Amino acid sequence: MNNPRFLALILLASALAAKADSQSPPQQSPATPAAAGSKQVKLCDNKTTVQVPNDTPKTRAEGQKISDALMAQWKASNPNSSWVQGEVEAHQVVVPADNSKLVGTGQSATYGTVTQQDVQVWKNETYKTAVYGSKVFHSGDELGSEIAVSCDMCHPRASNTHPESYPKFQPQLGRVALLRDMINWCIEHPVRGKVLAPDDPKMRALEAYILAQRKGVPLDYGKR
Amino acid sequence: MNDNVKIPHIKSVETRHLEEREALFRGLHNLDRRSFLKVSTGAAAAAIAAGAANHFHSFLPVNVAYAAGESAATPGFTFAYISDSHLYVKKTNERFVRQLLRAVDDVNRLDPQPDFVLYGGDLAQLGRKEELDLGAQILKSLKAPVHMMVGEHDWYFDMGHRWNELFGAQTYSFDHKGVHFVVLMSVQEKDFWSARGMSPAERMHTVAGLDNAVQSAFEVGAPQREWLKKDLEKVSTSTPVIVFSHSPLYKLYRPWNFWTDDAEDVQALLQRFDRVTVLHGHTHQVLTNRIGNIQFHGMLSTAWPWPYAPQGLPALTVQMNRPNPFDPNDGLGDGSVAVHPDGLVDKLYNLWNRNPMQVKASYLSSGGKSDVPVAPTLASY
């Protein structure tokens, strides 16, 4: 990845999303009475807090200290928050299409013109799905393999997975196969894991990763 | 039905296939020219009689002769190889264990027996003591003597400690019937783990991922190149040299470490010899190259096949078939190497459940003009 800002954004977005998933129903944080002579500052996760003495000077440096303390606390309680960064560094997932030329153009819809933020959100969310796919693809544990085998052992960087050739008649199966049928076949046989439902988040992510790695290859369904 | 009708004896496709395969292997093991030609003409006559003019999958050995009267550097001999078994302990994964056992059976069945067996590296998957011990135990049932080479999967858990205890030094040389053999440790990586605070298991896991970009490039390294220089000093240029390295000793595709970073420096040390062959593991496929006087051959894996790299494939490589995922042993195998009296080698890839592929020295020496191996119908994507 040569775009650190893009990465940092994804990193934060995914970390917060992961947090949101695991959170129990919105809890009214018990109004912890602020210690006398100090006030409580809360992070945007609605959970992490620090106590700031009332007599703290109102300077930028002191403000930065508060923000650093909050983030340090959050990072300590979310040790896997950088999984996207780690995955991208190890496995170089292909980045999705760049839609930035749409910024400023209208789409005759409620929200008017496309903004830089729209484009960034589309890209981040799409990329994150593919990166999660890479994580599953490279991990026997994520795939539920009983024999410690993962997809990358035969398909480094998803090579020889040829998603562009599906659907196609698979003589060995005696019927037309979609990409997900072959993914499931591989999970069941060489990987010896449990097959995934078509809408399982892992299946969706695996498809996203495999398609991402073949970006730019023309579709040619039915190709042997 | 009239019982008197004589049914002509017709051999099935399978029978003919097996007979030809058998004939080829018999021929390869008796390398003197006369018996080779006998096998080849006999099989050719049979094939022609059967009308097999367009017989693509035929095993007929074609064009065997090499220049008569050439001074013999060696009496000629064969050795076998097994490589890249990637063993887990049996409890975790029995399939890879069974596949190594199959290769051991293949080699033990060779008649006559090869002079020795090269093990091409990556005996273990995650470099654990239990994995290496299991591999060592299985290899003990080989009848022929074994020469071991180390791979990155054997090394990066304990930095070679257990491997060295079991098999001795990872860099060494020996002479056999007039040929000088060198075994290198070509999978040295610059330290990427300390700065990241990785545990030995994390380091091993990173190296074990072929497409993991966190690891460094493979290299032979300066100390070992110095050793090689000294080792080769006493060898005359007319002596055939055969080098074993786990990674290919050239630069093919960096993202998968189908690559040796100081390949040019190692090649430079080998250029003064008349006949040099390099045999490497790691790539799990039929792979052929020639750089100057050096001929390169890959080895098959017993665990799983790799796809061909998307870039950098040497022009001389005739790809093996695209492995069929529905056949768990497809694209796998073992093989043998026939060393000619002149010191160059014919490399046999014994692909399980497929026709074997032979890549001859004459194919490489002629720059790909003669004895071209038959290309499969379905190549890599």
Give your account of this protein's structure.
Chain A is mainly alpha-helical and 224 residues long. Chain A has helices spanning 4-22, 60-77, 83-91, 116-137, 179-188, 201-213, and strands spanning 38-42, 49-53, 168-170, 175-177. The two termini of chain A are 33 Å apart. Chain B has ten helices and twelve strands. In chain B, the strands form two sheets. In chain B, strands 3-2-1-10-11-12 form a six-stranded mixed sheet. Chain B has a six-stranded mixed sheet with strand order 4-5-6-7-9-8.
What's the SSE blueprint?
The complex is a heterodimer of chains A (224) and B (381).
Chain A: H1 4-22, E1 38-42, E2 49-53, H2 60-77, H3 83-91, H4 116-137, E3 168-170, E4 175-177, H5 179-188, H6 201-213
Antiparallel strand pairs in A: 1-2, 3-4
Chain B: H1 13-29, H2 33-49, E1 77-82, H3 94-109, E2 117-119, H4 129-139, E3 146-148, H5 152-155, H6 161-167, E4 172-176, E5 179-183, H7 200-208, H8 222-233, E6 241-245, H9 263-270, E7 276-280, E8 288-291, E9 294-297, E10 333-339, E11 345-351, E12 357-359, H10 361-365
Parallel strand pairs in B: 1-2, 2-3, 5-6, 6-7, 7-9
Antiparallel strand pairs in B: 1-10, 4-5, 8-9, 10-11, 11-12
Helix pairs in contact in B: 1-2, 4-6, 8-9
Mean pLDDT across all amino acids of chain A:
87
Rounded to an integer in angstroms, the radius of gyration calculated over CA atoms of chain A is 23 Å
The largest sheet of chain A is:
2 strands, antiparallel
Shape of chain B: globular
| Oligomeric state of the chains in view | heterodimer
| Helical/strand content category of chain B | alpha/beta
Low-confidence stretches of chain B: 31-42, 47-69
SSE order of chain A: HEEHHHEEHH
N-C termini distance of chain B: 53 Å
Strand order, main sheet of chain B: write it out: 3-2-1-10-11-12
